[in-house]
Each structure stands twice: as structure tokens, then as C-alpha cells.
Amino acid sequence: RPGSSAPGAVSGPGPSADSRVSPAGKAQQGLTERYRVGSLLGRGGFGSVFAATRLSDGAPVAIKRVPRNRIRHWGELPDGTSAPLEVVLLDKVSTGFPGVVQLLEWLELPNNVVLVMERPEHSEDLLHFIRAQGFLSEEVARELFRQVLEAVRHCTSCGVLHRDLKPENILVDLATGQAKLIDFGCGTHLQDTAYTRFAGTPSYSPLEWNRFGWYYGEAATVWSLGIVLHQMVCGQHPFPKGRNISWGQLSLPQRLSQECQDVLKRCLSMQPLARPSLEELFSEPWLQVSCLAKRRMKADVPALEVLSVCFSSTVKAGPSPSGVGT
After folding, report:
1. Which regions are flagged for Low complexity bias (predicted)?
2. Minimal CA–CA distance to 178: which of 11, 49, 6, 326?
3. What's the pTM?
4. Could you give phi then psi for residue 2, rounded to 5 degrees?
5. Sorting pLDDT into bands at 50, 70 and 90, what band is 21?
6. Which positions are annotated as active-site residues?
7. Residue 281 DSSP SS3
8. Which secondary-structure segment (H or E) carries 124?
């Protein structure tokens, strides 16, 4: 966390990025004097993300470079420093919670703002993870979905609304099975009243936004979570491009358990008030302790090894390029 010593080490071999460096803001050293910048990991509407190494200790990090003229919203850090809203939100959630990418520091350069974040080396985004297998078994999906749900709950407890929940913004560490939420570029402060502006990916926007031009943070989040879960267990978006999402019956594969179908139908309810709250989701029968959770409590076994043992599906672990918040 900028200007602090909050915990939160980088996953993977080699030196960790746990040791925080100088306070955020106007850097005393140039970017190239402190980091060795490597390959491009991803590019989005708000900036580009590069793999990098911190020269002081060799820690792997991700560097997001955002042109100043693309920064639309600014906020204030606890110490009164003016900062881009994305930095403010990341500062709020960077408490060492493992399911959310940690901001290590940020730098102001003449034409750019640079965010330095942790970088799990052996990870890939959830979209590629799903595509590699076609779709995920319910047991694997349950474990990952529970982790994503916990990450979202952490964000809301910090007063942050992510607003761009989708498989591309969830990293899966192939060495540990840890899911990690990334990219807060579309995020905002959490509020109890309705939002009348949307930022995020249109195909994940809630039905009420498309119909009426407003949405509530929690109900919209649950809608997006429903789409993510559908992609996990079905291998595709529930509402392909051009398909009308105002229909009332969600067509689901018969192979899915009734408990899993119930979660999907509730999250993707056309009525915002009929969707479960985040806390209610944790109580869903489908999300109760799984084979994986029981095995991990008994022994320190790598998550993906347990997945293959419990569910008779082998997941090959290995390094894969991944962006951290483009």
C-alpha cells in the first residue's frame, strides 16, 4: 500500500514485493531507474500493462501506464494527496487481502501516471482458464466462484464498487489455485443510492441499466457474478451478442445440479430486488463446503492438485502471460 507497510506478498518463486517502497506521488527517481520494464501484458481503454522487475530486490511486478489526458476522475488519498480515482480505490482495497491485486506504489510522471502492482508469475485470466477446458466442473467452479465472491465482499467492505466483473479481470494462480480480482479502472465509491452512470463492459451491465438507465451497486454486482458463474459452468456468456436478455426463462444444461441452477437463476433474475445479496449468496446450498475445501483444510496440498484428485480432471499448471488491470 502506498506509503505504508501493509502485508501482501507476490505469489510465485523469487523475492517478494512485500517490502513497500517510498510513498506514492511524485517520484524522486525515474521509472527506469527503479524498474526493469519487460513485455506488454495487455492494453485497454485506460492504459497499458507491462511485466516488470523491481531492481531493488528483483520482485516481479506489473506496471500500468495511464496517459494523464485519459484520467477522467480524481480523488483524495487519506493523507490528502490528490490521485486518480483508480489509485484511490486500489489504496482502499490493498490491505493484504489475497483475492484482490495489491497496489505497491504509484508514480506521477510528466505525461503519465504509473501504477505498480503485484504480479503473480504463474497465472492466467479466468477466461483463458475456462476456454482451455471448455467449461469447468461444478466443484472447480464452486471453489473459484467462492473466492471471487469473497474478493467482492472485501471490496464492498472497503467502500469500493468494482463495476467491471468479468473473467478477463480475474486471475487464477496456476500454482496455488488462488483467484485474484484485478483492474479497478472502471470502479467507483460504493453508495446506497442508485447510480445513473455506467462504467464497465456493456455485455456485463445489468438489465435495469439497459432498460431504465439506473442500477444499484449490489444488485448490478450480483448480476455480473451470475454471468461469470454461467461462463464457468457452461463455457459461454448466457446472453450472446444480439440475444434479447429480457426473456424470463434461463436455459441451462441438464447436467447442472439443481442447486447450481438455482444460484444462476437467482443472480440473473430480471428483477433487481429478487436477486440475492452478497451475504445471501454465501448461504446458498451450492456454495457450502466442498470436497476441495475439506481436503485443503486437512493438508497443505496445492489447490490444483486437489482439484484433479477430487474431480478427476487434470489442470496443467504453467506460466502464462496475464494482464493486471488494463
Report:
1. 1-17
2. 11
3. 0.82
4. -55, 130
5. very low
6. 164
7. helix
8. strand 123-125
